[in-house]
Amino acid sequence: MINNLNQLSEKIYNTDFKSLDNEQIYKVLSELSNQMLLQRKQNSKDKRKLYYLSAEFLIGKLLKNNLENLGIRDEIEKILLENGKTLAQIEAVEPEPSLGNGGLGRLASCFLDSLTSLDLKGDGVGINYHLGLFKQTFKNNSQLEIPNPWLEKSNALIKTDVTNIVKFGDLELKAVMYDLPISGSGQTSNTLHLFDIETADESIVKDGINFDKKDIKKNLTLFLYPDDSDLDGRHLRIYQQYFMVCNAAYLILKELQDNGHSLDELDKYAVVQINDTHPSMIIPELIRQLTQNGIAFERAVEIVTNTCAYTNHTILLEALEKWPYESLKQIVPQLIPIINKLNEIITEKYPENESLHIVRNVPMKFKKVSSINKPYYILKNIKIVHMATMAIHFSKSTNGVAQLHTDILKEDTLKDFYKIYPEKFSNKTNGISFRRFMYYSNRQLSDYITKLIGDGYKKDSNKLKELMKYIDDEKVLNKFAQIKKDAKINLSNYIKETENIYLDDSYIFDVQIKRLHEYKRQQMNALYVIDTYLKIKKGIYPAHPICVIFGAKAAPAYTMAKNIIHLILCLQQLIENDKDVQKHLKVIMVTNYNVDYAEKIIPAADISEQISLASKEASGTGNMKMMLNGAVTIGTMDGANVEIAEYVGKENIYIFGKSAQEVIKLYETNGYKSSEIYENNQAVKDAVDFIISDELNKYADLTKLEALHYDLITKDWFMALLDLQDYIKVKNKLIEKYNDPIAYRKMSLVNIANSGYFSADRTIQDYNNDIWKL
Ligand SMILES: *Cc1c(COP(=O)(O)O)cnc(C)c1O
């Protein structure tokens, strides 16, 4: 090994391995793992291949994961140690690729990991964003966004010689393909293909993350999810999406033909999984490229429908993409005749049911200004293209991502589609990479489990169940407790170093880490903090000191989400300045929550907060990660929490709040009035009003907190006040339980032992058995 490393060091830096600095060592190790991955066995040309299309891949750092999967981590660590270095130091200089946003992107990455670990043939296809989503910083207790460049440093990307010309209505761009080799615990490797343009120009980004949204030639691959609050932003997203699918279709058909197969056999040799609606234009684009190459239109539709499968990730209407027909006509005119024909097929079949149509007329209000400068409104019909609708009609499968979510799709959101295509619908409950989120990031826990039950659980996660034989073994329970404690010490040290905030590891670590969204209800957790604070001021203390840890980015244009971050940061500062309260309660929002942070926080979690409004969280995967690391969940009966509850039993999960059915009913009947709860419950009123109190406003921008306060008592669309009292009651019960360490450690062990189902290896096997058949 050391010879290999020296050779590579000579080749890249003209010196031997031990003379390198940390960044150079990173480069050499990353080069080494890429080389080893590229040498791995290739799957046969005659097997069907999966193309996983996704706007995001939240892949996390790669080095440690790759070294582990290649089985050389220990050896490398030993060599590093001999040179006075640790792997952690080398990992610290590795940039985390800014290619994703949240759960959906992380899922895509866990899937690539599991596909590879199971030696299944499947590549990811996406976009090589130069500046990512954004990097989160805090200033004056508010979120500030700055670019998150990762390509300028050493990284593992490999430039290929695959290029493609992408034509838009008004310009042509040359696409270049970059590859990231993907490792798994199996014998083969797969690839993440990322398309880019050579004319991307980071220098057009000024003051935060602002840039000229019309300068497509320079901005196309700069950011993931550019602000779509205006038309130019929405257009940029269409440019990005088409860029992704045009290149994906080109690559898929090229590989098919390179392997000696005919275009007519596409569905035999390829399957395309459409991760949410962002890549759904792959359907008309594949049809376009097939017909251009001589396949008849009807036949092309048939082949493409048999090749594509669609995953729905949300029932939130704002996320089911709809594009103005006129915008598509301007940006991707070549798709318009195809979309029209697809729409005709559907309207002829189902003339009466407009909700099934792909292109629909929607009345829209437009503001005009009269000659005397008075605004007035006109009503105009505009044509809208429904991307999810197209994806369901013209693919072979539609799946939800947890049982409850799939049931809601069938019975509610997509019921008209379910009626006509019952055979297309199925559930594929999400999963996570156990390797990344426990075996490699919580080695102490993994090693101890191996000592207890052997390492068979690493190949078959259901074997974790064998841990149940230790449920009454106090020695074992104490050891698990000590491992948790060590993880908490590690996290406190890291947070002290990076955020300069001290967390006492004797406190309960209560963790809510996920994108900031009102439906996920970080605001309800903040109200819990306020309620606890007010009680402490009255001399009523929580049963055990608690540290509430948040990690969350808010979309730059999502004002209410940013107001909630502001509230949490103000609470953090208020409590930091109050020694007495700190004896019982701490709050911290960590900066720039990402995969790297997740891997550090999750092993240390005592409580996992999964408190979305029931029916709104499609699955959640953070819940699975923390369960696997022995946290106890407090949550609503939402998403995969429902299945977690089934596995651990109701004594080992803390459930509260209204059910999905009750919530759906409230929306249907307009039956929820937050003002009534606010007016009729003193504790709720006190907590809500504290948001605009003088005490807090010392640290706050009053207008932001006033907007939040006003929203909560007049609208509260995601019903935080509805569940608040029950949440406070149940959370305090859980905190009380923590004072019985044996009982708490038993719950923790039950959670680890029953997490096996939530491995992404299981999810991938389900997709493969039912949909892909690779
Ligand atoms: C797992 C993960 C998520 C998704 O978390 P949810 O709780 O399921 O929303 C988001 N961000 C990162 C960095 C993750 O690792």
Automatic annotation (TrEMBL):
Gene Ontology molecular function: any one: pyridoxal phosphate binding
Modified sites of kind N6-(pyridoxal phosphate)lysine: K625
Cofactor: pyridoxal 5'-phosphate
Domain of life: Bacteria
Keyword Cell inner membrane: no
InterPro entries assigned to the protein according to its UniProt record, in alphabetical order: Glycg_phsphrylas, Glyco_trans_35, Pyridoxal_P_attach_site
SUPFAM superfamilies with a match to the protein in the record: UDP-Glycosyltransferase/glycogen phosphorylase
Biological process according to GO: glycogen catabolic process
Function statement: Allosteric enzyme that catalyzes the rate-limiting step in glycogen catabolism, the phosphorolytic cleavage of glycogen to produce glucose-1-phosphate, and plays a central role in maintaining cellular and organismal glucose homeostasis.
Name used for this protein in its record: Alpha-1,4 glucan phosphorylase
Gene that encodes it: glgP
